[in-house]
Amino acid sequence: MLCLLLVCACEKLDTNPEGSSAQQNDNHPTLTVSDILNGDFEADTEIWLSGYIVGYVNGSSMSSAKFATGNKATNILLADSPFETSYKNCVPVQLSNSSAEKENVRKALNLSSQPSNLRRKVKVLGTITNYMSTNGIIKTILYEFLTDDFDYDKYYREHQNTENADNTDNNNNSDEVMQFDDEDDEWPDEDETIDDGTGDNNGEGNSTGDNDGNNDDGTPDSDTNTNLEILAKTQFTVAEIIGSVTTAMQQESITSLPLSKVKGYIVGYISGNNISSTSFTSANAKETNIVLADSPNETDYTKCIAVQLSTSSSYKATRDALNLKANPSNLGKSVIVKGTIETYMGRLGLKNTSSYTFE
Questions:
Q1: Residue 232: exposed, middle, or buried by beta-carbon count in 10 A (0-12, 13-18, 19+)?
Q2: In the chain, which ranges are E strands?
Q3: Has residue 91 got a pLDDT over 50?
Q4: What is the pLDDT of residues 337-350, one digit of tens each?
Q5: How many C-beta atoms lie closer than 10 Å to residue 179's C-beta?
Q6: Do domains 18-145 and 239-358 have the same CATH topology?
Q7: How confident is the model at residue 143 (pLDDT cuts 50, 70, 90)?
Q8: pLDDT of residue 17
Q9: What secondary structure does DSSP assign to 261-275, as a single string?
Q10: 48: pLDDT confidence band, cut at 50, 70 and 90?
């Protein structure tokens, strides 16, 4: 019986998803951000805290929170929602480098060297105490990336219904159907300090200054009403990446969209360091990237995006399956790839490509 228990314990250690420094720590409770915000914990004890990495603190208190990637490696913010933008709903986590163990956690989790961690779900083991003038985690010694189980469709539906209800209540004298107000869409500018989660985007896309989501003729502003809808999606076409997603990310000062899927046809590869050097063939292909388009016969690089096939061991299976050097027959195939939407080869593309599905 003892041998059987030892075997089961070892098998459990081998099932940590994606990336982990986690060990068997059954004596430590796992809490959510809500648990800590509600005071459901014992101070100065070691706990596991689970949540989504949504930003970092740029100063010494939570009022200097940044809900974006940045150049700070000493801490991260965890929240119960990957779209959280109020520091009042977050817990700060210290990323110390005072020991090799803690340095390992810092290197894996910080948003400075690991920008693709933004909105990833993780759990960390550390001591809960006063940190950043609030309840936080220090002495973080272990981490484990978790499966993303957030209901994105439900989030968007609820957010859309709330916004529409608010607009109706505030505009009872108008017969127009009100659209989302860009100022209240909870997507902060990257260089904006968040004090209360409301943000203050100045509505530059509204020439009237009213920023009510409509032009003078009553038609919706294209640059103020659709950003949330666009960025809340989890799968995109190539045309959407090139057009609406690029525009929305620029307007909202967002540099990356982790855990996104793109559907397209493999039409070639990039031989240089810019998408303009796309070769629409499998001949002499590189292993490190492919090019996707919405049509299998596309030969215009301006209608394509680049997909990174990283040489990191974490992404080896995806690279081995997709690259045209080893798989020339992939040319023209339809595929859905998952990774981080960010600038790659001179325009928005897909990096950290972690999985794929041929159609």
A1: middle
A2: 30-32, 46-57, 65-66, 75-79, 91-94, 121-131, 134-145, 235-237, 257-270, 278-279, 289-293, 304-308, 334-344, 347-358
A3: yes
A4: 999 899 999 999 99
A5: 20
A6: yes
A7: very high
A8: 45
A9: EEEEEEEEEESSSSG
A10: very high
Tell me the C-alpha distance between 201 and 191, whole Å: 11
The amino acid sitting at 226 is T
CB 211 within 8 A of CB 167: no
CB-CB neighbours of 349 under 10 Å: 27
Average pLDDT over residues 153-172: 57
Q: Output the pLDDT for position 39.
A: 85
Rounded Cα gap, residues 130 and 157, in angstroms: 36
State the pLDDT at residue 7: 39
Which residue is listed with tokens 């991260």? 76
Report residue 198's pLDDT band, with 50, 70 and 90 as the boundaries. very low
Which of 77, 101, 91 lies closest to 37, judged by CA? Answer: 91
Average pLDDT, the chain: 78
- Identify any residues that bridge with 291 across adjacent strands, giving them in sequence order: 268, 306
Return the CATH number of 239-358, one of 2.40.50, 3.40.50, 1.10.287, 2.60.40: 2.40.50
pTM: 0.48
Report long-range pairs for 42-47 (Cβ below 8 Å, ≥24 apart): 42/128, 43/128, 43/129, 43/135, 44/127, 44/128, 44/129, 45/127, 45/128, 46/125, 46/126, 46/127, 46/128, 47/125, 47/126, 47/127, 47/128, 47/137
**Quick one: pLDDT band at residue 336, thresholds 50, 70, 90?**
very high
For residue 185 the two structure tokens come to: 């869409």
Higher pLDDT residue, 232 or 272? Answer: 272
Contact 1, 120 (CB under 8 A): no
- Would you kindly state where each structural domain of the chain is located, as residue ranges? 18-145, 165-232, 239-358
**Residue written as token pair 């209540």:** 169
User: 18-145: what CATH class?
Assistant: mainly beta
